[in-house]
Amino acid sequence: MGNDTDTPEARLAALGIILPEPAAPIASYVPSVEVGGVIYISGQLPFVDGVVMTGRLGEDRDVAFGQAAARACGIMLVAQMKAALGSLDRVARIVKLGVFISSAGTFTDQPLVANGASDLMINVFGDLGRHARSAVGVPVLPRGAAVEIDAIVAVRPA
Asked: Is 87 within a domain?
């Protein structure tokens, strides 16, 4: 990221993404914890205009919906990063995403759904956005969400 037009913020603007207010915790936890050069971001739900994208993949939702939900979770993760770090320039590397997908027992395209968030991280952070990942089907998520994603991010000192 060599110049001012190649920053995470500039890439967000080029993608037409305006970061929302980071979601407040819905239980007894904090949105993120920074320790030892790493920030751990709690699971984020797919909010669009303040409404959670709900449903179960392979039952009442398809892969395209799941990818959009995963992308929405990714946007919330980036919003949490910015809130915690002050600047996205402090992101040294997206290390790992943990992607949880509300899925019917016969649904097996969790990796395709997770790409909605993975592709966003690469689009925003370039090669620093390439990460390890888990994509796991689960029977239910908080608030009936279709997807929930947490993240581990290496950071530069403030």
From this structure: yes
